[in-house]
């Protein structure tokens, strides 16, 4: 029995080179097509802001492309692997390798190692580039592609619960004691019953109190409405509640997200969805390791039998099924139906077993 992981250095390098060139070629084509379609739908909104022009369009492209790369790299690896294995099968190279005593796992092994290298690059790219680009793009979108206020962070549509009351801030900027709210709405409730609605153009902390400027107060019980230059909401509402409530796994790197989770837990806020996002920062890039195993069904079987296309479709279906299961598990984790670890790692472990079972039962 041949127990070597790589039976031949030349074969391993040859297969890995085919894998890299085809995967990144597919990725480049996908990014160009998707970016073009995205820009066609967004350019009118960007150019609608006074003063925006070609420079702002290229700025949007620079911020959006990293998101597309991170999101579609595993899918490009799946297609690249299928193209590689189908080509090797059509040219009878798979048959030659098996005739030389090379097992199916040894044929796939170089692709798995190459997928691991892609996963490491993808993780580093997401941590250093994509998270920052996502945060910058969200801040830019929050001001309708205009000038971003000079603040540490800008967040949009932040909800905070203070007892029974609900507070919506359509834009949150700044940090520490210099947090500024724009477009604030307070829903004053008692026992789940709405009694008062307060709308303010802006919100600032003065003497430890949240003060709404240019505010309108509507009393639900009496139907009365009054306008005031300033309305104080008291000291119970703290600035960090708005900055902590806007933690987004897509906009924070691994260390920052861990710190946000700890801060939210200390504030007594739920963190299950953020923990699922934290784990998915690892399981997401590692999906490129799984793609060669799921696509391996396309590598074997006689090309002359007419079933090569069917095998390729089966491999693509397994890959698509993984992406669907991964998104479904994350959604269930966000709703609290799945534990964070299961939401992030469950689909990966499940399809790892499925791919290994299919490979063993059909080829080994």
From TrEMBL:
Residues making up the signal peptide according to the UniProt record: none
Biological process, per Gene Ontology: lipopolysaccharide transport; transmembrane transport
Domain of life: Bacteria
Keyword Cell membrane attributed: yes
Transmembrane segments: 12-37, 68-86, 107-125, 282-301, 308-325, 337-360
Pfam families: LptF_LptG (PF03739)
Keywords: Cell membrane, Membrane, Transmembrane, Transmembrane helix
UniProt protein name: LPS export ABC transporter permease LptG
Organism whose genome encodes this protein: Allosphingosinicella ginsenosidimutans
